[in-house]
Amino acid sequence: MAEGESKSDRLSRVQQAFVDEGAVQCGICTPGFVMTATAFVEKHKGQKVTRAEIRRGLAGNLCRCTGYDTIITAVEKSLEDDT
Ligand code: FES
Q1: Does any domain span residue 24?
Q2: In this predicted model, what pLDDT tens digit does every residue of 1-43 receive, in sequence order?
Q3: How far is the CA of 6 from the centre of ligand 1 (A)?
Q4: Is residue 3 part of a domain?
């Protein structure tokens, strides 16, 4: 899962949120989503962000499995954990 995203042998905050929220199914889209989500979380630290804004922030990444809701929830969780 996106080597280099984590600074240790543990999953990054965003990676763990994807696992916890069931935002990973086949995994083909996951590295792109995790990298984009990580940049989004870094940019919006401490800010109140809507699900629509998260969805726009992840635009350009496509997932054929999850229906996106679990991915958006994972990013929300990452933002909450990061404040
Ligand atoms: S988890 Fe399969 S394409 Fe996103």
Answers
A1: yes
A2: 566 777 778 999 999 999 999 999 999 999 999 999 999 999 9
A3: 21
A4: no
